[in-house]
Design a protein that fits this description.
- The chain is of the alpha+beta class.
- It folds into 3 domains: about 45 residues; about 30 residues, no CATH class; about 160 residues, no CATH class.
- The protein is built from 7 helices and 9 strands; from the N terminus they run ββααααββββββααβα.
- The strands form 3 sheets. Strands 3, 4, 7 and 8 form a 4-stranded antiparallel β-sheet that branches.
- Strand 1 and strand 2 form a beta hairpin.
């Protein structure tokens, strides 16, 4: 539709009313706005999604999600403890022992230390057992510093000790005496003494220190297989 006319052979534009001009201006502005919106959407700008991120940006989950997007999986204290609990059995340190011990007993003259001849009996005991030293991982603490790529481990102070001397690994050779028969509890009493002696010998030999070192090595190897970029730091060793 043409918007001009001829006056005396000359083409001239007719004067438009204010309303007509205002309407044309609004239509033009809306058209420009629509074009701009299409360009922004094609370029990937999503205003509603951005506002949602800002709204939830203060939550712990949102922070981790945002970090994972730019830096990969974020290691947390819970992640570390889950991994360590899965290999708790590997952290147990064990040491075996074996030996032979005799039980010799005779009746004595009342009120003296003199043995009565012919009343002696003897028990020869062969045994083997295992001492296990472990730790309650509920007392272990792990703190992760993702910025420095460090994992701080606080170890339990007191180990858990299991000194197992099973009956199937005990052999007895008895030389009984009719005048002084072997009592039922003699073997068990002697084995209890053996267990205490073997545990003390293991402690003197450094079994607690060996178990502690073993646990550190297992922790480092386990975490390194998944998070090799992180350094494991034991806080008690730092304090020393």
């Amino acid at each position: 539709m043409r918007d001009y006319e001829y006056v005396n052979g000359v083409r001239v534009r007719p004067k438009k009313s204010l309303l007509t001009r205002l309407g044309h201006t609004i239509v033009g502005a809306l058209a420009l706005t629509g074009v701009a919106a299409i360009v922004l959407m094609v370029s990937g700008w999503k205003p509603f999604q951005t506002s949602a991120k800002v709204k939830n940006s203060g939550s712990r989950e949102a922070i981790i999600e945002e970090e994972e997007k730019f830096h990969g999986i974020i290691l947390t204290n819970e992640n570390v403890m889950t991994q360590l609990n899965e290999i708790a059995e590997l952290m147990t340190y064990s040491q075996e022992y074996a030996g032979r011990v005799s039980v010799v007993d005779s009746l004595q003259v009342p009120y003296t230390d003199m043995d009565i001849w012919g009343t002696q009996h003897e028990i020869e005991i062969m045994y083997s057992g295992t001492i296990k030293v472990g730790y309650d991982l509920r007392e272990l603490k792990a703190v992760v510093n993702n910025q420095k790529k460090e994992i701080y481990i606080t170890l339990p102070k007191n180990p858990i000790v299991d000194n197992n001397l099973p009956q199937e690994k005990v052999t007895c050779v008895q030389d009984n005496n009719i005048f002084n028969p072997i009592r039922a509890d003699e073997v068990n009493v002697r084995l209890s003494e053996v267990k205490e002696q073997q545990l003390q010998a293991a402690i003197n030999d450094g079994i607690y220190e060996k178990a502690n070192q073993h646990m550190r090595e297992i922790i480092i190897k386990t975490l390194a297989t998944v998070h090799s970029e992180y350094k494991v730091i034991f806080l008690d060793s730092v304090a020393q």
